[in-house]
Amino acid sequence: xxxxxxxxxxxxxxxxxxxxxxxxxxxxxxxxxxxxxxxxxxxxxxxxxxxxxxxxxxxxxxxxxxxxxxxxxxxxxxxxxxxxxxxxxxxxxxxxxxxxxxxxxxxxxxxxxxxxxxxxxxxxxxxxxxxxxxxxxxxxxxxxxxxxxxxxxxxxxxxxxxxxxxxxxxxxxxxxxxxxxxxxxxxxxxxxxxxxxxxxxxxxxxxxxxxxxxxxxxxxxxxxxxxxxxxxxxxxxxxxxxxxxxxxxxxxxxxxxxxxxxxxxxxxxxxxxxxxxxxxxxxxxxxxxxxxxxxxxxxxxxxxxxxxxxxxxxxxxxxxxxxxxxxxxxxxxxxxxxxxxxxxxxxxxxxxxxxxxxxxxxxxxxxxxxxxxxxxxxxxxxxxxxxxxxxxxxxxxxxxxxxxxxxxxxxxxxxxxxxxxxxxxxxxxxxxxxxxxxxxxxxxxxxxxxxxxxxxxxxxxxxxxxxxxxxxxxxxxxxxxxxxxxxxxxxxxxxxxxxxxxxxxxxxxxxxxxxxxxxxxxxxxxxxxxxxxxxxxxxxxxxxxxxxxxxxxxxxxxxxxxxxxxxxxxxxxxxxxxxxxxxxxxxxxxxxxxxxxxxxxxxxxxxxxxxxxxxxxxxxxxxxxxxxxxxxxxxxxxxxxxxxxxxxxxxxxxxxxxxxxxxxxxxxxxxxxxxxxxxxxxxxxxxxxxxxxxxxxxxxxxxxxxxxxxxxxxxxxxxxxxxxxxx
Length: 727
What we know:
This protein is an alpha/beta fold. Helices cover 45% and strands 10% of the residues. An eight-stranded parallel β-barrel has the order 5-6-7-13-14-15-16-17. It has a four-stranded mixed sheet with strand order 1-3-2-4, covered by helices on one side. It has a three-stranded antiparallel sheet with strand order 8-12-9, with no helix packed on it. β15, α14 and β16 form a beta-alpha-beta unit. α21 (547-577) packs antiparallel against α22. The longest helix is centred in the C-terminal third of the chain and has 31 residues, at 547-577. It is globular and about 75 Å long. The N and C termini lie far apart (71 Å).
């Protein structure tokens, strides 16, 4: 057995992509000439980067800090790490040059010479931990993004002040190599590993296998990408946060490893959950030792590991939770003595038995719900003084909705951080999908660099100036509307995100949400929201040239159209209930016309194209069959999510609904046309509507979607004017 294992591992090590991974990237790997911050600025502002000098700055009382000074054309940025230097430069850009970068659009129209500062710009971080990305991010944001995307993403996170980034890419290879050393063949493990779109939930011990098997070539490519990600993070002085090992095992582990003890975990939303290896046992110790060794060989060590023990309904069986937590922590400390255990604050996590059992000074709870539930008031009592990061999950599933509970951020963050005995030591940016709500990204990042509470009226009053490149009363008016509506809600109603649109819902006359766990009603006045679009359209022509303006115009127009669905559906129901076929036909044509206009709106933006999502997935395949499999893996996440038991019984269908070109005009339109035709036929025949097997329709469409565009089309200004004229 040992000879066979060595032979197989030798073959693995000999592959082209893995041949370069024997030496872990060094924590202090040399950056490009001029330093990592200078290299980033050369990518971001190639015309101006030589006007900026970056220099190190000692931390102030242990806190990150930056200082920006200089004259026209000669700007000096000092910071405690290259990433903090970029944060300082971005603050300078916003406050002095009316420019900025973001997830969604940027404004970089700058004079030939960068403006000087009247006085130095100095900021200290008010918390040590500035964590970014949700466990689900690699699924809902883009499981098949390549290095071009990640290079930009890391730059943007650094510009916004974040210093700890969750890295799930490449974890599949760690598990693959680990279990080959514990009784499994190469093919066994590859069958167990899901497709990349579904891997986040496998890493959280919710499910396995769906969307697989993964190929050796795919694993190799994901290793290479992950190595580039962690290397860049280290160059910038940012911390890659890796998944730790807490007991997930493939099927039949007990049979293949004599004496092992595995606790069955039941189901998660219709998926069988992987088994949980009892952490108190020698088998757990051995597997964890292998896991951390392999992980370090591939990606090097880090100082923070994320583990959500017994996540979302996991069962401890007869294993005492405190004993399990101590054993999981011991395995981590054996491999990485100084590491911090990061754990998600979500539902019942972390259980009290966990925080009572571990070294709380070396645990960080990433609180996902302080802006969600009004009964969350005292995290020091909830977690026995465990350090925690004030977090937000303003987006679920990648829904294309505008808004966030920014009033809660302004009200709670400073008050909780400065109260006596506060354990708040960080922020945690954790939307389930990134690349949306750029104002929320900027505002939440600013919490960690602002003295005192944030004044929302003042913040949103300044935002459009650097968002579009100059002062404009109409831009300010538009964002004041958005501040009061989409960004003006609070957790008082028990919701952390805005309601999704009904165009993406499975058709029903009584449907009030597309995703099963989305808000049932709009959380703001849609008529007031509609006032933002004409104000944006009235922005001065000189300020309309940026990708930031074009994105915002698209997004406000899209949201205005999406909100029509909630106003129109009750009228359609009333016509049907009155058995008025003429009125029903008129209103359903209006519905489909609005869907057609929505398709036009989102087709103008590259990030709202289903074709781009599918093309990215196919690009990772090595054979036609694999390209098809990866496309289904990626598309199923947005539609049925999983097999019938999960889509219907587990209520996961449309969890990740989004208003994208190709989805709106494709699956969503097909469903509503099919439904409206059946309603009309039922009235004509004087019968009840027949039940439609939506899963069967969705599954067919997911496996054989029509051709969809991969490049934007249309003039967003012209289309937004059409939307405004119809509101």
